[in-house]
Structure formats: C-alpha cells, structure tokens
Request: fold
Amino acid sequence: MKIKGVIIALFTFLVLTACIEDSKKITFQNETDNWIVEYTATVKGEDQETNSLYVKYIGEGETPDRIDYQIKERSGGAGRTNATLEQGVLNSNLGSCSGCAVASENDEIEITIKWMGLVRRFN
Reply:
C-alpha cells in the first residue's frame, strides 16, 4: 500500500509541475521630487505579457486629482487622458497581450506624466 501512495504523490507532483508556467517580472522604477513611478511587465513564455502602472504623487502642495500619462516601449505603448488619482495614487492594470513582442530587461521605457500644466518624463 505504501508504494501506491508514493506513485500517486509522484504523479500529482508531475501534473502540478507541468501546469505551472514560468513568468518573469520586469520592473521599471523611477522617482523625482514629485512622483514615484513603477511600470511592471509580467512576461510568460516568449509571446505573452501583462502590464501594470503604479504612480504616486509625493510632491509638495496640492495633490492633483487627475493626470495624463503616456508609456512608450519597444513592444508598443499605452496612455490615458484624465486618469483619476485616489489620494495621489494611480494603480492601473494596462492589459495583456498574447502572440506579441514582449518586454526584456534591456528595453528602454519612457513614461510621460502631465498634471496641472506641468510635464515630467521618466527614462
């Protein structure tokens, strides 16, 4: 009976291991006097990616309620006008793609934030 339990445990382990996909997180972080920015690309395999953006206002004075942002990278980009900040924070799931060119650690990413008549670019 012990051997049957070992075989079942081994089979279960092999099935679970085959179901787990390796993913890699690539994160771009930058900070200025006014902003903390974190752009994350979670890459699965060679052609699947999910992206998110975290922006936090840390400047002095009035905290903006809304911003415009633009992201440019090798595999594409994203942007939004009048994105709402909650207590100075934007936490946005930018979506995913399959069968697309994905980000790599060496990619250059440019993020532009516009708020209250001001502009800040992050490279």
